Amino acid sequence: MRKETVKTDVTVVGGGLAGVCAAIAAARLGQTVALVNNRPVLGGNSSSEVRVWVCGATSHGIHRYARETGIMGELFVENQYRNKDGNPYLWDMVVLEAVQAEPNIQLFLNTDVHEAEAGEEADGGRQIRSVTGWMMGSERSIRFESPVYLDCTGDGLVGFLAGAEFRMGREACDELGEEWAPLVADDITLGSTLLFYTKDAGHPVKYIAPAMAIDITQTSITENRIIRSGDNGCAYWWIEFGGEQDTVHDNEAIRDELWSIIYGIWDYIKNSGKFDAGNMTLEWVGSLPGKREYRRFVGDYILNQNDILAQREFADRIGFGGWSIDLHPPHGVYATESGSKHMYSDGSYHIPFRSLYSVNVNNLLMAGRDISASHVAFGTTRVMATCAVIGEAAGTGAALCAARGITPRELHANHLQDLQQTMLRQDASVLGLRNEDESDLALQAAVSASSERSRFAVEHPAFSVPLTTDIGITLPVDPLLDGIELLIDASEAAELTVQLWETGRPENYVPYAHLQSASASVNSGTQQWVKLDLRWQPETPRNAFLIIKANAAITLHMADQPTSGMLAYGHSNTPVVSLDFQNQPAQPVVLWDKKKFDHTAPCIRLSAPSQAFAAVKATDGYLRPYGGPHLWSSDQMNSGRPEWLELSWSAPASIRQVQVTFNDDVNEDLINLHHHITPYEILPTLVKDYRIEAYMDGNWTAVAAGSDNHKRKHVHTLAEAVTTDRLRVVIGATNGSQYAEIIEVRVYE
User: Fold this and answer.
1) Measured between alpha carbons, how far is 528 from 487 in angstroms, rounded to an integer?
2) Maximal CA-CA distance, the chain
3) Most buried in the list 410, 478, 559, 665, measured by CB within 10 Å?
4) Is 213 in a helix, a strand, or coil?
5) Per-residue model confidence (pLDDT) at position 593
6) 401, 394 in Cβ contact below 8 A?
7) What is the pLDDT of residues 686-730, one digit of tens each?
8) Which helix (H) or strand (E) holds 449?
9) What percent of the chain has pLDDT over 90?
10) CA angle 16, 21, 24 (to 5 degrees)
11) Is the pTM of this model over 0.90?
């Protein structure tokens, strides 16, 4: 046996997506990082060992413009490019290579931390001095020493060993005023799940159930759960057990019970005679239970249900989520009630930094499902893409703490703006904060462009949709709405009516308050542009929600390409509702479904010019849609004519680094890991070929370039600084879009 000591600036324990993003974030900020994982692969529940899909703020397309950016966004986009079909082993490699690309990270796989040394400090708090892990198969005992530690273990093992305050189970409803909490606190948690894959073997395959398989016809499963022969993987998320047990200490017994359920379900599918499954075989069955819940640490703030539903705009927000509050019955798969109940906010909610550090261990941050949240709020923060966003924030905070020799609480109290601005520079998933980096020369520049998309119009129809139900549209109003035109057919004389609503909050895309309505009489005929007198001038640029009212005599024309800043929605006449644990309706949740019109756009014209895509939007400080798209878009690109965005200064500046963020359409849901297939390998809105030019000695000179691009963000550090008063990004081609689009340009000395 070998004994070693590893000293780094930051130690991250746990190699799920929270830990991976935390380690990468800290390493990119110049800190040395030890990333310690007790499994042979990274990715946690998303890895090939467990194979849970990576859910996040999009909530399967319910929330708009909500896909995560930052490090999680990079992983999404890279996986889409390399692994569109969602092969779980290739996903393992995408995650591993992202870690290996960072020279500041030392990776320790198969290393199980089982010991922490911590002691009392003069202020009454505790301080972690080291954690020790055993590397299986290598007989190495490794002691990790750092000034800052991150617990990304999910189960909260490091914090527990260090004496951090934590909670388990459910709070009583009167403690935090949570409607969905029980009357009396208890120790019930969400259970664990095993998944399985099947395939058609192309020939008859028999199945003899193992002895452990249960007869599911003797349980409530066949009556209360949906079983289909072609389903596998995450379609069986409801194979859940252990909510009334200890999901850590009873892990082996829970796994055995889950195996008995899976093999029993497969026996029912294969041998009951109720399914066409003669050629089907089991391809893979998990052996590592995917845990949902265990310890939740106590931070300086406990996020709760009311924060989620109110979308509370914390001053110390460092990330966002959007998954529903998703809670499961204690009996899991054996429950007679629905397998889950859901409560949705109207859009993405915010997460405070105070929920990411321990209330009593001075140098401990946490990320993932063990953050400071109530059981009810945890029902949404626990999904992996949100855990990853939290991980990037915690890793950024850890790096700043290590570099400055301060605690996370001191960072919050005295350097919060530095934390938030650092995250924005890294393209992290934060809503409603703008770039105020004094060192960014782009904020001091005048901005111009080869062209701007000042006329908001979609004019080339590809198909039509009858108005048998209402259709919704969101679009940016900047600075005003002064009438619209819609392209319609009418089978007879009819009246076209459109309602104008506001969305209430800049991050929301649902109708909130009705402003006005307009109607127009139309005659029988095809491809008629019909004008409706809708007028609105909000105090600041906002999104409008238009509701085109149903009329069976009218058909709306649609384009077969989406357009940035605008979405269309189908309306459900039968509201989708969440269910409580007694199968009683709880609340309507999805009345407007964008998935019906994915990759399309209604044919529409705005009468007034729009500033929503002006050149100055590339330096307005916002990295995400927020009351508008916040990007520069050219007019339609002409073959052979490049488009460009130019920055100019009143005096020459010395430039060493240029940072460009392209539009990767964060409305496109890339949750394709083992579940959802998105058609594009490369998002069409992304710029494909570009160059960066500086104006020197009377000529434009290329100082950096990119070709065959498939990524959102590029940082070009020049070999030598250039002195210029004009800089531009020249775009030669996109990956399919007819518009050249840039979200942000930053320039540094």
Assistant:
1) 5
2) 87
3) 478
4) coil
5) 73
6) no
7) 999 999 999 999 999 999 999 999 999 999 999 999 999 999 999
8) strand 446-449
9) 91
10) 125
11) yes
